[in-house]
Design a protein that fits this description.
457 residues; alpha+beta; homodimer
């Protein structure tokens, strides 16, 4: 890269927007996927407007520089890991909530707005931004759209895509596209919004979004915590509870090894159970619906179902689920995986993971967004740094991916393909699937400059 | 077209699958958009399998023959109107429900299955297929996916896209693509399912789908019917009711002229109101939620809100809404339009339509899926045949489209662009939008043989 070319980029953007200092650049080179090493970026741009993004992309296009876009850098699949010589494009400073329209149940935001901030702003109008990844207080709306992220409330409200109405996207060559419908319904033209949702920075850069809000459920939530003798029993009870139509907001599972990790940390005695389910119900007749779920849990083998009497008690029950991840972090480095299967296959997948752990002597603790069939097996390993992932861990993770595919599931329910799963993607998509996706990629990014080497690499 | 080429098509398909008789062909040449004249097709194929569709498309691709795909032919925008010399591809006989998986809340169906049939099959498992276009007993699942159709229950369950998990699609050259995720969540690869949903036969031919089912709400629905002094008051009350979070399944509006048409037919006295709203609530605490809506209607100016005490009474109230369309059919030929606006703009749009009707002496009766901001102004006109649409009707419809766009709405909420609205589409998409959609179209159908002249023509 000639210095004159880089100077052109600097000149085309506001003062201070381009970072070239190597130490500062390093802090932009990776997301939270700490199992991956990053390449050295050429430079980083901290955009403050769609115009900034357009200028940066036009420059990259003219100079054939690959571009890695990042929101808040909270990704877990290496989607924002820097590749050598890339231009990092950070949207973290595009963090303004531009409008909330309470009668139309929409908000218009810049891509860098933090999910939790948007949800709190919506709450002031009696509304809610439904997408709630566990990272919601550190992850951005734009990043979550670019990965079509999930979350705990998905079991009721669906994935991020369901909350996105329209987008402003800067294309690979710097053109600015406004696409989608601000309205509830709209079928004019092809659904480009869906295409950009979950495209992991490979088709364009999302700079603004109009997202849907929903009425915030009233009243206290009712929370249930149920220990089961076995994981099989717990996951069978989840299926039975889901068939009741009780419309829970949460339906979470923790396996025995996760409970053991919490016990080891907190001195509790959860791991006498073979698995535990946490559920929550909000809104009309929450108590009545929670009671139906409690009955299904009893019938499924839970002798002692705790049901919260008030919000504070509910928070105490949820706090147990929140301990799952920090309890594991104490034990070593973590490779957090993410497969999704038909709900009826959850129990099979847990047996498969248990057998794998036993046969190979691996430490795998699993939590699941069980109502959605979304499993997070967390592989724990030792090593000088998190990037020292032992081969047997990668092999075991690969076996879990393939088993998920074999039973009708997918490689990734909510974290994305990123860098970590790109070598498995073709197995899921099939030959024609890969051909079609590559054709669409070429149509939108003919030079292949947007997040190269990620997702459909 | 050489006879030998057509003979190749006949030889590549099961006996009787290819129709060349002109009279029979004519019955395949149009959908329910009776305002449009159709061209004469070259031939029609009645497919019974994905293989049949693949053979037909491979032949069309090799011989440069345009292909117009049809499901049940219930479309209202001319999406399935034959173009001269095209091959009609009918999926009406691919009407098998292949599987219902009650634990996973999914069904696997061929594209020609009638929506109502699928919903009834799901009901046997305590489940529901949520998409419910008014045409649900005559329209097909595949056709509704290809138009991303709406329906009355959208206000609660969202559009058809939200119910589609994975698709089998035959591409323009005959390759067979399996795409999407059968699971609740899945973010591996680009969202091709969304791209095919609503693509109106221009990107590929959907032959099978895995669709989501939902638990069927229990208990009796509670139905409300509220006459308001003015349309403004009615639509204001709709907004107020939506903000309660009472989660209605229906929230429908009828304008005074629609009520007058019913009165003229049935001798009722509805048109003493300036507008009427029909709402329905199902599931947990339906009575309590209905009461909240009734209070909002009272507060909004409805003196006399009818609330059903039982299912039969609810049906009587809904029957009034069902009269809206047949009451208009008595008055002349109908051009049924379909725009969607932010809900806060509904009252403005009704005033605009009222003024247009008054200024130009036109008969326009409007119903709306008001909870979604989706208006159906129905233009009534005289003429020897439905295709004799007077110029002033097209002009008025165009003015309604442009006003909807001006206030942040869209040309079509649920019917699709088809033939009727293609000349307006570029106004909504903008230059970059058109370029991007054309690039995607070229990537998937480089010869431009799939439904040419429709949608993004």
């Amino acid at each position: 890269m000639a210095t004159t070319a880089l100077q052109e980029l600097i000149d085309s953007l506001p003062p201070g927007a381009v970072i070239v200092d190597a130490d500062v650049l390093d802090s932009y080179a990776r997301d939270r996927t700490d199992v991956l090493a990053a390449g050295a970026p050429l430079a980083a741009v901290t955009a403050r407007s769609t115009d900034d993004v357009a200028a940066a992309l036009a420059w990259a296009h003219a100079n054939d520089v690959p571009v890695v876009t990042r929101g808040a850098g909270s990704g877990l699949s290496g989607g924002a890991t820097a590749t050598p010589g890339c231009l990092i494009l950070s949207l973290a400073k595009m963090n303004r909530i531009l409008a909330i329209e309470p009668d139309d149940f929409v908000a218009r935001v810049e891509a860098g707005v933090i999910n939790g901030d948007l949800d709190r702003a919506a709450a002031a109008h009696g509304l809610m931004y439904a997408p709630d990844p566990s990272s919601m207080d550190i992850s951005s709306v734009g990043g979550n759209i670019a990965t079509n992220a999930g979350g705990l409330r998905c079991v009721k409200y669906g994935v991020t895509r369901n909350s996105v109405r329209s987008l402003t996207v800067v294309l690979a060559d710097g053109r600015v596209l406004r696409t989608g419908h601000d309205t509830v319904k709209g079928v004019s033209g092809l659904d480009m919004v869906g295409l950009f949702c979950g495209s992991e920075g490979t088709l364009g850069v999302i700079t603004e979004a109009t997202v849907a809000l929903v009425p915030r459920p009233g009243g206290d939530p009712v929370t249930l915590l149920a220990p089961f003798p076995t994981a099989d029993a717990a996951l069978g009870a989840v299926s039975a509870a889901m068939r009741l139509g009780a419309d829970p907001e949460l339906m979470e599972f923790m396996d025995r090894r996760t409970l053991q990790a919490i016990d080891d940390w907190k001195g509790t005695d959860f791991a006498s159970a073979g698995g535990m389910v946490l559920a929550q119900v909000m809104g009309p007749d929450a108590a009545g619906r929670a009671e139906k779920i409690a009955q299904a849990f009893h019938a499924g083998g839970a002798d002692d179902v705790a049901v919260s009497d008030n919000a504070a008690e509910g928070e105490q029950l949820i706090a147990i689920r929140r301990m799952a991840y920090p309890a594991k972090e104490r034990l070593g480095h973590l490779l957090t995986e993410d497969v999704c299967v038909p709900r009826s296959q959850l129990a099979h997948m847990m047996r498969f993971i248990d057998d794998l752990a036993a046969e190979r002597g691996l430490a795998i603790c699993t939590v699941a967004h069980a109502g959605d069939g979304n499993l997070h097996p967390v592989f724990i390993y030792d090593g000088a740094t998190p990037t020292d992932v032992p081969d047997e861990i990668w092999e075991a993770a690969g076996d879990v991916f393939r088993e998920a595919l074999r039973v009708g599931g997918t490689l990734t329910g909510e974290h994305g393909v990123g860098t970590l799963k790109r070598r498995f993607l073709a197995e899921e998509l099939g030959d024609v699937g890969v051909e079609v996706q590559r054709a669409v990629k070429r149509a939108l990014d003919p030079k292949g400059l947007l997040n190269p080497g990620k997702a459909l690499a």
